Amino acid sequence: MSNVNDQSKKRLRIAMQKSGRLTDETERLFKSCGIKINENRDHLLAHAENMPIDILRVRDDDIPGLVMDHVVDWGIVGQNVLEETSMQRKVDGLATGYKVVTELNYGDCRLAIATPQEEEWTGVECLQGKKIATTYPFLLRRALSAKGVDFKIVLLTGSVEVAPRAGLADAICDLVCTGATLQANGLKEVETIFESKAVIICRDQELFPEKKAIADKILTRLKGVMTAKESKYIMMNAPRDKLKEITALLPGAENPSIIELEGDKERVALHVVSREKLFWETMESLKELGASSILVVPIEKMLD
Ligand code: PRT
Ligand code: ZN
User: Fold this and answer.
1) Is it the case that residue 111 has pLDDT exceeding 80?
2) Which atom of ligand 1 is nearest to the CA of 198?
3) Helices in 92-208 by DSSP H: which ranges?
4) What pLDDT was estimated at residue 1?
5) What is the pLDDT of residue 135?
6) Cα 61 to ligand 1 centroid, rounded to whole Å
């Protein structure tokens, strides 16, 4: 028995989506942070092979509750599910405490209201007295009540986009990414009510010191991976007398390394880490200033 307690004090337990839109990116993220997990997605609980971390694979809707009930230490979930579940749990009298550890750079989408394409739209007042199908009744009610619109909710957990055609509702409120699903169903997006991305959340209680140490380590690695994704390593040969102008063109670049070129007094090699994307336009301007052999190389990991 004491063994189980010891383990739960020492191993960081993280809940992630078992199978869905966040799964691949989350697995990629763990991998890039050096966490090796069992590939078998059918196992509810996976132990990392090389770190004191356990991964719980569940439906995304269960993740906020698992964190709020202190069953897991961290959860990776979309802000849409987090916000909706928080409001639902508040009404149900359940615990709603959590902290956001960090936002992630995937899972971007928006919760939007859509109506049949042929319907005239002049503003949210068009929804007065209408039936709106959604999986997100709390977020929808919060957004529309704030604007004084009175409407009816048709609660659906799937295939929300077919509700108007099936005669179940006048409009829908659903997640949108590219808008292709709406278009394919003869709907148009008329109002965004919530912007969302994936986040890591943490229980609202201090972690045991051993777990805190693991959490901090993973967070540092994670930030390193996320910064690296945006950053580029840039190399070029450049005329010595244009170095100032050239460096000024490089976005978010730290002090460049200048390296002598064998047998060339006029030109040097310049190496620099740029924290932002480098556009073709900038590369063309660099070339106009006399830079040559310009190489832009992706960075995998960064530790400042
Ligand atoms: O089984 P489980 O409950 O775990 O999964 P789920 O089916 O509830 O969720 P899933 O896997 O579909 O989505 C998980 C999370 O990914 C969501 O909660 C969002 O935070 C995020 N996300 C990002 C999206 C989308 N983009 C998205 N486009 N979730 C759903 N969609 C759906 C949307 O509902 C609609 O059906 O994709 C369709 C629209 O996409 P477009 O590109 O055609 O606009
Ligand atoms: Zn779900």
Assistant:
1) yes
2) 20
3) 137-145, 180-184
4) 43
5) 98
6) 12
Residue to mutate, 59, 159, 175, 189, ligand 1, most ligand atoms under 8 Å from C-beta:
175
Q: Which ligand is nearest to the CA of 24?
A: 1
Three-state DSSP state, 67 = helix
Contact 185, 161 (CB under 8 A): yes
pLDDT at residue number 5: 59
Predicted TM-score (pTM) of the model is 0.89
Residue with CA nearest ligand 1 atom 19: 78
Pocket lining: 189 vs ligand 1, CB cutoff 6 Å = no
Binding site membership of 21 for ligand 1 (Cβ less than 6 Å): yes
Contact residues for 119 (Cβ-Cβ < 8 A; gap 6+):
126
Q: Could you read off the pLDDT of 127-141 as tens digits, one per residue?
A: 999 999 999 999 999
User: Does the Cβ of 184 fall within 6 Å of ligand 1?
Assistant: no
For residues 121 and 243, give the distance between their C-alpha atoms in angstroms, rounded to a whole number. Answer: 55
Report the C-alpha gap between 126 and 161 in whole angstroms: 19
β 109-116/187-196 pair status = antiparallel
